[in-house]
């Protein structure tokens, strides 16, 4: 007996409420078809979940005429044949052979401009199918070879981590229903989730927060592979990785093969966590994350993994514990390593701005460019540094009322009297003597004005 196609069995299951009846009263057929069309279906090989009334009706009458064989998918009679005129087909293949680098759009444009085909007559799909059948849709030579992708695996845990973001469910956040995102970091060799968390956005700050928890729990990776999203390109994340000695690597755009293991984790997560989640028990974001962390540690990390020869991700990770790079003495100042450094120019009044607020810095920095050090998670300004990272002092919120009573430092006043008489020649005195020596007021030997009663003889 011929094996039944899965699509035929699916169609038969859809028609079940119709064909199971011994007879249909007037109006029953239309009513039942409308009811069947209103349902959702898991349609084989399709992303759709609904069927049209005319489709169900056609299946029904075909089943009545020929039975289940009529529900088998039928190949197109014109399969493998082009409906384009022979002259147009020849012109298309000739244009491609003449210049193999011509794209489908360029060939269509060429044929339209030469009058071989009317404008709008050729569709991209028909031209592409023709070139495919003729073996002309791909360049010959090395450029026509498919890009090589090979399965690989890091030798040790901690060698490579992957980072990515997945869209999650909607939960209550501060009294409002909001969509959340799962930020994940995974170890390549062990498939261990070094840390993951649901966040209200997929910005650099959220990714940095997950990275901070991951290195606290699982040490430092040698490489961190991420995609080309703007959040991963942020200068703050690049700076943090540089300070931690993590080599940040970006996948090529539109090349998800570079993070296949993380894509597989997302599929597992949807199938085993999201599908089992009870929304009625999730009151806020902390509820959702608490369940995520419990499931990861109690279920995912402890379930044998086929790609790990039956080991669990946790057991495989623990095999390489002696090789894991630890934070060492950097653990005590981890918060500092994750601070943001923001370039600012100090105003003449000794202040800088951050998120609309003004902060006072040492007044000596007025007019200079500095690095404002902030804790982005606490939205707190810590201090100021120079370009080399040396501390230049604190930054305090501006208090204009307190400044009204603050004693200000003033420069030393400039007086007209010199502190002491000049020791050598003095230009002023020399000019004075020269002037009076030529007919001005008489001077004595020391350059002083002579008294009126003093005679030349004396």
Describe this structure as you would to a colleague.
This protein folds into five domains: 6-71, no CATH class; 86-137, Arc Repressor Mutant, subunit A (Orthogonal Bundle), CATH 1.10.10; 160-322, Ribonuclease H-like superfamily/Ribonuclease H (Nucleotidyltransferase, domain 5, 2-Layer Sandwich), CATH 3.30.420.10; 339-403, OB fold (Dihydrolipoamide Acetyltransferase, E2P), CATH 2.40.50; 426-458, no CATH class. It contains 15 helices and twelve strands. The chain has helices at 6-14, 16-19, 28-37, 53-66, 86-98, 104-113, 124-133, 204-218, 235-244, 260-272, 285-298, 313-319, 334-337, 400-403, 427-437; strands at 160-173, 176-187, 193-199, 223-226, 247-250, 340-345, 351-354, 357-360, 369-375, 380-385, 391-394, 396-397. The strands form three sheets. A five-stranded mixed β-sheet has the order 3-2-1-4-5, with helices on both faces. Helix 5 packs across helix 6 (104-113). The longest helix has 15 residues, at 204-218. The radius of gyration is 41 Å and the shape is elongated. Mean pLDDT is 82; it is low at 141-145.
Kindly report the name of the CATH homologous superfamily of the largest domain.
Answer: Ribonuclease H-like superfamily/Ribonuclease H
Kindly report the spatial arrangement of strands forming the biggest sheet: 3-2-1-4-5
CATH fold-level assignment of the largest domain: Nucleotidyltransferase, domain 5
Low-confidence stretches: 141-145
The number of distinct helices, counting runs of at least 4 residues, comes to 15
CATH class category of the largest domain: Alpha Beta
Number of domains: 5
Mean pLDDT figure: 82
Largest sheet: 5 strands, mixed
CATH architecture of the largest domain: 2-Layer Sandwich
End-to-end Cα distance: 155 Å
Let me know the number of strands: 12
């Amino acid at each position: 007996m011929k094996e039944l196609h899965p699509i035929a069995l699916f169609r038969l299951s859809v028609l079940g409420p119709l064909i199971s009846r011994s007879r249909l009263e007037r109006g029953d057929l239309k009513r039942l078809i409308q009811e069947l069309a209103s349902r959702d279906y898991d349609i084989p090989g399709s992303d759709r979940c609904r069927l049209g009334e005319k489709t169900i009706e056609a299946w029904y009458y075909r089943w009545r005429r020929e039975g289940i064989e009529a529900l088998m998918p039928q190949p197109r009679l014109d399969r493998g044949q082009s409906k384009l005129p022979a002259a147009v087909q020849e012109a298309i293949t000739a244009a491609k052979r003449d210049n193999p680098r011509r794209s489908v759009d360029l060939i269509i444009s060429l044929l339209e401009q030469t009058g071989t085909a009317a404008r709008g007559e050729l569709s991209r799909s028909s031209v592409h199918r023709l070139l495919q059948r003729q073996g002309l849709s791909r360049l010959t030579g090395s450029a026509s070879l498919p890009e090589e992708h090979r399965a690989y695996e890091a030798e040790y845990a901690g060698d490579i981590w992957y980072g990515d973001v997945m869209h999650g469910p909607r939960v209550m956040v501060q009294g409002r229903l909001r969509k959340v995102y799962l930020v994940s970091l995974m170890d390549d060799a062990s498939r261990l989730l070094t840390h993951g968390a649901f966040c209200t956005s997929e910005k650099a700050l959220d990714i940095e927060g997950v990275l901070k928890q991951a290195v606290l729990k699982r040490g430092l990776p040698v490489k961190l592979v991420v995609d080309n999203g703007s959040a991963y390109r942020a200068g703050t994340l690049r700076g943090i990785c540089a300070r931690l000695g993590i080599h940040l690597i970006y996948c090529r755009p539109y090349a998800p093969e570079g993070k296949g293991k993380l894509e597989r984790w997302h599929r597992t997560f949807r199938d085993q966590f999201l599908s089992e989640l009870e929304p009625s028990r999730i009151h806020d974001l902390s509820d959702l994350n608490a369940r995520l962390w419990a499931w990861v540690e109690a279920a995912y990390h402890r379930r044998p993994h086929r790609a790990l020869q039956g080991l669990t991700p946790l057991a495989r990770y623990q095999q390489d514990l002696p090789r894991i790079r630890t934070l060492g003495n950097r653990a005590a100042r981890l918060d500092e390593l994750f601070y943001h450094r923001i370039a600012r120019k100090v105003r003449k009044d000794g202040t800088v701005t951050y998120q609309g607020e003004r902060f006072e810095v040492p007044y000596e920095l007025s007019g200079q460019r500095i690095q404002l050090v902030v804790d982005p998670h606490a939205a707190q300004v810590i201090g100021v540094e120079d370009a080399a990272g040396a501390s230049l002092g604190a930054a305090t919120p501006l208090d204009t009322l307190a400044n009204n009573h603050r004693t200000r430092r003033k420069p030393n006043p400039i007086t007209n009297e010199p502190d002491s008489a000049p020791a050598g020649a003095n230009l002023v005195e020399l000019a004075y003597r020269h002037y009076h020596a030529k007919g001005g007021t008489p001077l004595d030997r020391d350059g002083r004005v002579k008294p009126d009663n003093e005679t030349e003889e004396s």
